[in-house]
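Lab notebook, bench 4. We co-purified these components, and the gel suggests they stay together. Before we commit to crystallization screens, I want a quick structural picture of the whole thing.
Request: model the full complex, all chains together.
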Amino acid sequence: MSACDGADADDASGSSVIDGVDAGVRRDRLIVLIGGDDTGPSSSGTVGQSDGRTAGGGPGELVARLRRVCSVAVAEIGVDGAGITVMGSLDGGLNGARDQLAATDGLARRLEDLQLTAGEGPCLDAYRRGRPVLVDDLAAESSRWLGFGPEAVLVGAAALFSLPLQVGAIRLGTLDLHRGTPGELSVGQLADALTLASLATEVLLELAKQPDHAVGDDAGREADIAAVPLAGWLPDVHADVHVAAGMLSVRDGGDVTAALLRLRAHAFAHGQPLHQVARRVITRDLVLDGVEKPAQSGPRADHDAPDGPPAAGPENEEP
Amino acid sequence: MSNGRETRIVDAFLTLTDTLVHDFDSLDMLTMLCERCVELLDVEAAGVILTDGTGGLSVAAASSERTRLLEVFAVAIDAGPCVECINTGQAVISEDLTTPAAREHWPRYAPGALDAGFRSTHALPMRLRDEVIGVLTLLHTDRHTLTESDARLGQALADAATIGLLHERAVHQAWTVQEQLQGALNSRIIIEQAKGVLAAQGNISPDDAFTILRSHARSHGLRLTELARDVTERSVDLTSVVRPAL
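Here is the predicted assembly.
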């Protein structure tokens, strides 16, 4: 848990040790390498620390952060290249467009083009199925994607690892890694890859929250928005938070993505644990109203039920 | 062993490993595992906790969606027998959580479980060869030790469920354990989101929403996770799944 994220401090975060590293330690190390945690010690590596620190937290900085996720993947996981592709709509912002927001090399871009052309490939499978697609030896499995596989081998991909960027039914895109030589990811490398995928998901959620979702050519125009440090909060999200997001989406008439972001924003703004806010939404003791919705009349205080206590505190933990 | 029980045991194994039916859903199967454990092993509650590939652990299924029970499993993950079971690959048993030794060993878990009404715990590893992919946790309200044959049955059910969970691996040989586990854990999040959607839509509790979701999937031959996704994305008419309570 990073220091900047006190709001979730007592959410469940049980972990065992993978390859000698605890999940939280692994996550914090990768956050520092990405350079999203401005309060942390600076990275000792050479992986893009400079480009993101200067920009604000607007789309430009968020896209820069995605690029650093990719370069950290290359530096830490022992892959030759990485890319992040968004699919579907980010809360309507991209209107169903599919766009590669970051790529470390030409091959990452080429592989994305190939999948777009062929309409198939590991990235699309990972996105649709909601699970990683780990192809250790593409040449041996090229028949898995008849249009994409042989072409991908021809342009130099020998192993491909696509990880979905998702939170349950919220599907945002994929983190795609490639290698020029066949071979599987080690347990520790896979743990790093999954952790980076969850950090990239957090960045994409931030991007979905941006007022006009400007990406690509428009990137950087919103650079005056305050920087939101990368917190690594998603893996610790309590099950109740997802239930509350589902409920809130119905009450708001919005989608689950917006609902999750509102819960998170409320918890952050009020310094309350996320799962506590979720419990109070579930027990209907807390109604979030207008929070984080720039198009409406602006932020308002939350309204408690008539018989409810004031906003703060753990009073309503149990119904 | 009575004939009735024998039949139920056979049925349980058939259900857990009947993975080729078109509407097989790993989350539904794991929920059934928990329910069968409660029926067959003389325990009050059961839960399945899975590893997530980064060192994290999450509740994937439980014999009941009661909030208090899910809380107990959450603490079992955080500061209880589950992590020990995962790390050692061995069953971790406490037949009496009221003893000073148990309270000292699990300063958060023991009081939490007792507070929720559970006095004993069995954590059984879900193993695939040398890899532990999860834990089947059994809870009892009294001081309790499984008989040797029940402990063996519990482990066999856990093993059968592990095979069921990884079934698509056999169907699609290229798929890895981690692909399966990640898919199952994300499915669980989809189900939580869908529980919330149905609870708000029907003005019912999340537990009841889960029951409705599951029986709707069953009666319509749908995979639980796919129905949950449709509910969350509103690509199914919510009123056809749940009628708002009047």
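The domain at 3-174 of chain B is CATH 3.30.450.40 (Beta-Lactamase). Worth comparing against the SEC data before the next meeting. The beta strands of chain B are 45-51, 57-62, 92-94, 120-128, 131-140.
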